[in-house]
UniProtKB/TrEMBL annotation:
The species this protein was found in: Sander lucioperca (Pike-perch)
PANTHER family per UniProt: DENTIN MATRIX PROTEIN 4 PROTEIN FAM20, FAM20 C-TERMINAL DOMAIN-CONTAINING PROTEIN
UniProt xrefs under CDD domains: FAM20_C
Name assigned to this protein: Family with sequence similarity 20 member C, like
Domain FAM20 C-terminal: 321-538
Region Disordered, annotated ranges: 62-88
Length: 550
């Protein structure tokens, strides 16, 4: 008995010894791994402000920028904390359950591509996410703003209709049965995400920075059931309007070519295909630049049979479906460009990549005005536009309304910079909300022809900046921030795009496109420096920066 007890004690002691040794060994092995995966700490904010204040500009307003971030743009304060995490940060797109595991994208393994500098892409995304958080925390993205007056909101919630005034409709049509009757009242908590988005549009932006509604809105676009799909008229290429059970709607543009295919350089920009990934990347870029003038767009794998053919009431569209020789389901719809059997879009065998952009409020509620761009291309293979031949073209433009007053010119330059960065030559028009007159932001719709070429830049897109030498100070400061290694544009874009559901299929922008963003950003900043140099040589004041900070 005594012998047995002694033996079991020895065994217990040996086991305890082995366990402790294994733990020690594990700790020793994992220590260097933790060290490797840590990013170098970001320099304190004062360094960045000093970097920005460095060289050729006076640091007006910088002290004001260091104030704590406030968000006075939210209409309903009860909403404010809705999606905040424990640190008080608003969750990013991925935090809302566009979880790869739960969705149909789960079947596609997350690609781990080898990126620049030999690091793998997953690691670059990780460190980019830290940079993106730091960027969005920066005072330049959190500038204190006065509360928004009532007339500066695009829409108003109508007081609740009395029950007696409500329609006494006793029946619903078959297609209406797919819609869910919402219990909406004037409290924003009961509103579906698309309605919150509409109600959040103001005179100067489509949505606020760190919008608490963004996660819910993008999740709706990415996952909600599609109950209807009809062709959208207007424009030249095929696109559909899709509807969700909660009456939300989205503009659908299908994938027409592989993401890393470069546009054929013999093709004129106006014959180029639209790209679904360009629509998605443009939304992210616009947000990273701090503009917030593109309606949110997400990528989605759409089942062309279940989510288009079976639910469409559009007979003209339904008639164009066919099965390809290899068994993929294809369709081409009706439009003025590329709507033929030769240019059909095809599922694999039924899944088709597409972009879904949230629809702006219906024109019956909020009229938009479409403006012809003064720097519009000639859309001819032989004719030059005026801005290409007249040396003093800018001064003619700035003497003409609406460019002669307010912020129209600098808002247009903002758009030009976005277009140059993503190499979009197809900006013939831009839109504004009529309610706000000329004193408002420009809605940056239709970005499908961007990101066509990464190996070449298109300097003519920058002509308005080159010719007018004018830029918002806040835009310039943010561009300089994005040129610093701590916030590098390509890194924050890679990270931002990693939140999109289609990232799990393949990165939305290939590495050469991301590298092109950094290269083009440098060109923009050099153009501004040249302007400043020229003006100081002419003995003028600093007329290049439009001071929107003071
Ligand atoms: N998110 C949106 N919400 C509401 N309307 C939109 C939205 N996006 C685009 N539109 C409208 O739809 C029309 C066509 O869209 P878009 O310009 O993207 O198509 P397109 O085929 O690329 O046009 P084009 O051939 O003229 O370049 C535009 O006139 C625009 O006003
Ligand atoms: Mn277009």
């Amino acid at each position: 008995m005594l012998h047995m007890r002694c033996r079991s004690r020895t065994i217990c002691l040996s086991l305890a010894f082995i366990t402790i040794s294994l733990h020690l060994l594990l700790a020793l092995v994992s220590l260097p791994i933790y060290h490797q995966s840590c990013d170098p700490p970001l320099p304190p904010r004062t360094h960045i402000l000093r970097d920005l204040a460095h060289t050729n500009y006076t640091s007006v307003g910088i002290s004001g920028l260091a104030e704590p971030p406030t968000d006075t743009t939210q209409r309903d304060s009860s909403n404010k904390d809705a999606n905040k995490d424990a640190k008080g940060h608003v969750q990013t797109l991925s935090g809302v359950g566009i979880s790869v595991k739960e969705s149909k994208y789960a079947s596609v393994d997350m690609p781990v591509n080898v990126g620049r500098y030999g690091t793998n892409r997953a690691e670059s995304v990780e460190s980019g996410l830290t940079k993106l958080e730091a960027l969005f925390d920066h005072p330049l993205y959190n500038m204190p703003a006065p509360p928004i007056p009532e007339e500066d909101w695009l829409l108003k919630v109508q007081p609740k209709a009395k029950a007696s005034e409500k329609s006494s409709q006793m029946w619903v049509s078959a297609s209406q049965a797919d819609y869910v009757d919402g219990q909406w009242n004037s409290s924003s908590n009961s509103h579906p995400p698309w309605l919150r988005f509409h109600l959040g549009i103001s005179r100067w932006q489509l949505y606020p920075h760190r919008d608490p509604n963004m996660d819910a809105l993008t999740q709706q676009l990415a996952t909600h059931r599609i109950v209807s799909a009809v062709q959208k008229s207007g424009g030249t290429q095929l696109k559909l309007v899709m509807s969700f059970p909660n009456y939300g709607q989205a503009m659908f543009k299908p994938m027409k070519q592989e993401r890393d295919e470069e546009t054929n350089s013999d093709l004129y920009y106006f014959s180029d295909f639209e790209r679904h990934n360009a629509e998605i990347a443009a939304f992210h870029l616009d947000r990273v630049l701090g503009y917030r003038r593109i309606p949110p767009v997400v990528g989605r794998l759409v089942d062309v049979v279940k989510e288009i053919k079976d639910v469409t009431t559009d007979r003209k569209l339904a008639r164009t479906f066919f099965t390809s020789p290899v068994g993929n389901v294809c369709f081409y719809g009706q439009c003025s460009y590329y709507c033929s059997t030769e240019h059909a879009v095809c599922g694999r065998p039924r899944d088709l990549e597409a972009s879904l952009a949230v629809m702006l409020p219906d024109l019956s509620l909020a009229v938009r005005r479409s403006w012809r761009s003064p720097w519009r291309r000639s859309y001819s293979r032989s004719k030059l536009a005026k801005w290409e031949s007249e040396p003093d073209y800018c001064s003619t433009v700035t003497k003409t309304p609406p460019f002669n007053k307010g912020t129209r010119l600098v808002d247009f330059i903002d758009l030009v910079i976005l277009d140059f960065l993503m190499s979009n030559m197809d900006r013939h028009h831009y839109e504004t909300f009529e309610k706000f007159g000329n004193n408002t932001f420009l809605v940056h719709l239709d970005n499908g022809r961007a990101f066509g070429r990464h190996s070449k830049d298109e300097p003519s897109i920058l002509a308005p900046l080159e010719q007018c030498c004018r830029i918002r100070r806040t835009t310039w400061l943010r561009l300089r921030l994005l040129s610093l290694p701590q916030y590098r544009l390509s890194d924050v874009m890679r990270a931002s795009l990693s939140h999109d559901p289609l990232h799990s299929v393949a990165p939305l922008l290939s590495e050469p496109h991301l590298a092109a963003l950094d290269r083009r950003l440098k060109t923009v900043l050099e153009t501004v420096s040249r302007c400043q140099k020229r003006q100081s040589e002419d003995g003028g004041d600093d007329g290049v920066l439009y001071d929107d900070i003071a």
